[in-house]
Amino acid sequence: MKPGLLLYSVFLWLFLQPLATLARGSGAFMQAITIKGTVKGSDGAPIPGVTIQVKGTSTGTVTQPDGTYSINVPDANATLQFSYIGYTQQEIALAGRTTVDVVMTSSASELEQVVVVGYGTRRKRDVTGAVGSVRGEEIAKQPVNTATQGVQGKLAGVQIISSGQPGSQPQVRVRGTGSMLAGAEPLYVVDGILTNDIRNINTADIVSMDVLKDASSAAIYGVRGANGVIIITTKRGQAGKMEVSYNMTAGWRQAANLVEMANTQQYTAFLADAGPQVTIPDFGADTDWYGDVLRKGFQQTHNISLSGGSEKFLYYFNVGYLTDQGIVRNNQYDRFTIRSNNEWNIVEDKLKFVTQLSYMHNETDFVQLDDIYTNTYRAAPVIPIKRDGRYGNTSAFQNVGNPILTLDKTNDEIYENRLQGTTYLEYSPWKWLRLRSSIGVNQGFQNRRKYNDKYLNDEVTFLVAGGNQQRPESQLTIVKEQGTEWLWENTATYQQRFDKHDLTVLAGYTAQKYAGDYIEGSRRNVPNSTDLWYLIAGDPNTSTNTSDGDKYARTSILARVNYSYDDKYLLSASFRNDASSRFPSDNRNGYFPAVGLGWVISQEDFMQNQKLFNFLKLRGSWGRIGNDNIASNLYILTANSGLLYFFNGTATLGTNLSDIKDRNLKWETTQEYDFGLEFSMMDSRLTGEVNYYNKETIDALVTVRIPGLLGDPDNEYTTNAGSFVNKGWEFTLGWKDKISDDFNYTIGGNLTLNDNKVTGLNQGQPLFRGGVGQQGNITKTDNGQPIGSFFVLDAEGVFQNQAEIDNYLNKDGGKIQPNAAPGDLRYRDANGDGLINSDDRVYAGSYQPKLYYGINLGANYKSFDFSVDFYGNAGNKIYNGKKAFRYEITDNIEASYADKRWTSARPSTTDPRVLLGSTPASDYFIESGNFFRMNNITLGYSLPKAVLERIKFERLRIYLTSQNLFTIKKFTGFSPELVSGATKRDGFLSLQNSTSPLDAGIELYPYPTTKTFAIGLNVTF
Amino acid sequence: MKKLIYIPLLLTAILLYTGCGDGFLDIPPQGRVTEEEIRTNPNAAVDLTNGVYNVMWLGGFGPDVHGLQFITLTSIVSDDADKGSTPQDYSPALEIDNFTYGPTNAIVGNLWTGYYQAIARANQALDKLPLSPIDEADKNRLIGEVRFLRGYFYFNLVRTYGGVPKIDRVPTPEEANSDAFQTRATAADIYALIIEDLQFAVDNLPLKGATPVGRITKGAAQMLLGKVYMYQKNWQKTFELSQAVITSGLYDTLSNYADIWRTRGANSIESIFEVQTGTNAACNAAIELYANSQGIRARRGWSDFGFGFNNPTADLVAAYEPGDKRREATIITIQPNGTVLWDGFRVPSRDSVENDRYNYKAYHSRTQEPYCNSPDRTPKNLRVLRYGELLLQYAEAANELGNTGEALAKLNIVRKRAGLPNAVSGGQADLRLKIWRERRVELAMEHDRFWDLVRTGRAGVVMRAHGKNFVDNKNELFPIPQDQRLLSNNRLTQNPGYN
């Protein structure tokens, strides 16, 4: 039996186990001194699920839903530790008491909270690297589809850009852009599963998201850690009676911002000037194309969860459903999720068995945006959309497809199933040693059925015949895709405290393998009926099919030591050895070491008499991490087969070997220094953190142009020849205060400054990317500049009259722009050669922000809760590509341009008379990317306790929330938040946004950011 | 439940045994044949040879062998054709038409990379063919086919750029950047390589009929080698090689000149070397942007046949003698009230299209000829070498060798088919001019004119008379692409006049 299949069988069996166990009761346990008590929050409400541990032992329990607990301790002078994520950990010496009531204080400071650091947890105060953490409830309260989106603005050093497209994954940059050609997205670790795609994770299931930002923290993930690591921990049951809760939101989404296009009158006036030869057809139309393509989209989520258990068995089960219509006509996304997390304590304190399993099914009515958006933007207002069942023929007039017709004649459905989970057995032969063996499986299946109906460019389809928009034969394409990845991890953790020495040692071995493939087939002339959308219904002579696959494997050895002395001096060191099949055997092994030091100054004797600081820690770390996020086998020369030619009229296949490959390819390596200061002041009301980081990426993958005479088809090859630096500062401040029992509030903010710079392109060749129509490539990545910098002509203004053109002379007295006419843009002769050409291009900023920030405010008053979050960035630029990419003179223009463009009667100093496809790329099209956005605003009301008791509810809260209520920005396009390129629809287990950081910040056909209004309900029985 | 502990132990054992041992990380590429496998597979050599033929379909807006950019540098540049389309469309081609191009012109760059891609495919095949286990005769035939194609590619390169780097094998990664590969060989060196390749092909290829249609024949190699010698003014060799093709008796003129470029004339008795195309399910089995780029371009009101480039000039129209049947077969003239094409399609009117004239030899009927709704890859065979040209190159060589009778005889075969009276000789120089003029009209729009003008030393005079800004000792050759020169660290020298 193949190991992968075996693992999968075991995995499935485990999925079914919890039901059997649920039926059994829990056993009795041994007698000793029993301590009882209640744990409450500072608001007086009981807190369930608080972990209580006898210090120095592994004996522990958790509080019941009513906050009570009971624990057996070996002696009357033991110390109990109370901990709960989001609250300050407390240690209480029993000193003979048998009842201990505790009031937990919320740790807005986050300093005392426990953070997940990869293959283990640490108290935040003991961590020597830069780790950020967001609690699940912060994410779940936002009406967003992916957990990643919910983290936006919450953490310094983590930039999140989210598109409004349903079912898409946001783009994340941890501490700047970490790669040029390899993936720049962080690694996600969901309950130990390493993945690139967390669109299957229901935000309601999340306890916390912890972000390992610096190299010393991420180095435990070795060759996958270079872009940071986001660890997601899902919920588990708590001992006690079954708790049932229901959470829902319902609302609608709409485009947060639209671009107003010219109306018929503005359009006609423009063409009279710019294209007098064009005869404009008169249909008496004044069409708002966006008005019909976009809509308000309905959105709802429902979650029902059950959790509870005993000391022997804990369970958490959740069913979730989400519908998101999206804002583009015909688009829809429905997702169904199930999660079942269970924990068996087979032998008290010795043997534990845990399963964390999830299943996701989604159905997408997919809309290929490129075409639709481009055509909606270009379509002339003088053409009607549709009249009496016949479409306006945009293509007959202006060579643009009618986007509504395209939408109506396309049916593209995608079904995805995803099974993901981990299961592990943990054995603790002695209390200082934990052995864990875990198996994870991540499996996906995707079906896609795309049907393009036929229509002709005749008067049956259109109001007038002609044009290029037609599809003489219908076409059906079916794609089936599957991928399975298994991950097997074995770790041993040694933890011991002697006197003032606290030592934790981790060692482990992991192996992982992925195999996936897809098959695609198509036929033409398939009838238009859902029941006939199978290939067999089409013309067999038009059959096409293909299939392809991918496999890779990795093995790793990892080790980490954490040592602290007297909670004062902290040391952590880690090491990972990774071997990856994606590289040639000589370069296959990588070694990723890291070390961190911390000094808790507030623990020093000399700090004991001051009142200012409750906590003060200084830390520094260094680490090395890698990025192997590139296509498999990039180093092996492979043949292109299936090259056709005809002999005797018969198709014959050929092959060729022509790619030039780097046979010594290796991964990118990032080294980072990190220094941080963490503090808590004024009775812990004020907390903060300052970080400085400097990370250098070397051996970065770049494409190098090679001489054409070597015959490589694209004249490029990929090699490790680049290096670049991200360095910056992160500031986090939080304030919380309680004015009275009825009123408390929090104020938090974070700010990140990042400076990205290319330091070395070994072969001296800058990378030109970011193609915009006839303007060609508009970004240049070169030494001393940020990755993907805009590189265009410098437009200085508009020629007002012929005299200005005649007087714009070079040093030889020749006209610099001899072909210009009044109203044209005037460009700076940057290199002084007396001509305007591509040699005059200059750097004009990049899409990477110089700084970004988040502000989070919250308040509770009696039964009301209120929160508002803001997010913004500054110092970046956007290239308004859709405005620059003009195909034809008849393309529509933006209303603002129509009103501002130069005419002889209305001179303008900013906007030229006409924009043509041949208008060169210049900073005229570059706009500020700064924005400030209200990310979320929520007002909630919880029924008071008295009422709840009467109606037998644990909790009932109703709230109103809005995502992206307003944005303050200068950019005139749809959205300053551009996920460059659409989320790729294939290879979803190794999903990447098809963004290249080299193309970032060009607005061509974005899915507009949306604003959402929703009402929500939380009920717990 | 304690037994659960055995599961990981069991798995450990199984995985260590079957999975994670040696070779766990040695995963070959999925779905791709590697170079190693090609070396050991007996069919690989044949497949690699077929892959060289396939490169002749390279076109589009990137590297180009026979697409729009090839058309631009061979036809639009000449006095036979104008750029066409709309005035603004595709400005690099306008630069070529107007002789304002420089070393950064994209077309000049793309032809270079396209032909070197073709040559690299040929070299890869030649690298592996000797290793193949097939028998010697077959092996030599395949090597002959590939060497013919490599010779043809270099012939087009040397006529476009002059001396170019001589890449006659697969460079190792180490030597790819060496001076030997990164500097230009002389034109004479390149011609020597071409002649060597074509001679091998002549010596090893079977005659037409003894090899599948579409594969290179001995006759094709003889004709091309004869043409190469014509560029060297080695008239004796041209005469002998062309005569061998004639005496083989395997070729003749097709009676209806217009049929040569229609599907019914594909691989006809006239055909000597023709790029094959066809229809397949994916509908992409043809030269990208050959026919479509030259198709009739509509202004509005009807669904057109293409981009409208490469329009025959009025000058070409005037070059035909009265009664020459070839004019109507070569040029689509758009009449004010519409023009009916041979397949019955009616172009509505002059004001419904962009241009006055289009290339009939590139017209592909969508109703009467195979067509699968993929306009960019219309299955139009490209007639590279045909008997009509062979007769003229034979006649020219005969005239240069003083054999006026033979020269006139073959020239008049060509004229007779065109419906023209026999030519008479007014001496060697007069006959030479008559043969040249016949070449122009017989081979109009067949990518020969510009090179022929340069070959015969008339380019400057003719082009300037046509109003083009042709500079002698400069514009005979196109510049070496600027970016390629930079990539070679300026080891590639520039052609005269372009610095």
TrEMBL record, chain A:
It is found in: Cell outer membrane. It is a multi-pass membrane protein. The lineage of its organism: Bacteria, Pseudomonadati, Bacteroidota, Chitinophagia, Chitinophagales. This is TonB-dependent receptor. GO terms for cellular component: cell outer membrane. The keyword Membrane applies. Belongs to the TonB-dependent receptor family. It comes from Chitinophaga barathri. Its main location: membrane. The keyword Membrane applies. Gene3D superfamilies: Carboxypeptidase-like, regulatory domain (2.60.40.1120), TonB-dependent receptor, beta-barrel domain (2.40.170.20), TonB-dependent receptor, plug domain (2.170.130.10). NCBIfam families: OMP_RagA_SusC, SusC_RagA_signa. SUPFAM superfamilies: Carboxypeptidase regulatory domain-like (SSF49464), Porins (SSF56935). Residues 124-229 form the TonB-dependent receptor plug domain. It comes from the Bacteria. Residues 383-867 form the TonB-dependent receptor-like beta-barrel domain. Keywords: Cell outer membrane, Membrane, Receptor, TonB box, Transmembrane, Transmembrane beta strand, Transport. Transmembrane segments: none annotated.
From TrEMBL, chain B:
CDD domains: SusD. One of its GO terms (cellular component) is cell outer membrane. Keywords: Cell outer membrane, Membrane, Signal. Residues 310-498 form the RagB/SusD domain. Its main location: membrane. It is found in: Cell outer membrane. Residues 75-230 form the SusD-like N-terminal domain. Gene3D superfamilies: 1.25.40.390. It holds the Pfam family SusD_RagB. It comes from the Bacteria. The keyword Zinc does not apply. Belongs to the SusD family. This is RagB/SusD family nutrient uptake outer membrane protein. It comes from Chitinophaga barathri.
